[in-house]
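Researcher: I'm preparing a figure for a lab meeting and need a structural model of a single chain. I don't have an experimental structure, so a prediction will have to do for now. The sequence is pasted below. Please return the structure as tokens so I can convert it later.
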Amino acid sequence: MPEGIYPFGDTPGGEYLCFDFRGSLQQPRIVLVTIEATIHPVANSFQDLMEGLHD
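Model: Understood. Here is the structure written out token by token.
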């Protein structure tokens, strides 16, 4: 895992949802880290992630 990125959940495919503190220590972005170690943005904050969830 790259420095400043901390996983908090995983997907059935073995990828990780992570807090990304590299840009801000106060409000980390949420990223998906794939098995190949590529990083994809998911949300600007944990709150944005939660608000974007749907049934």
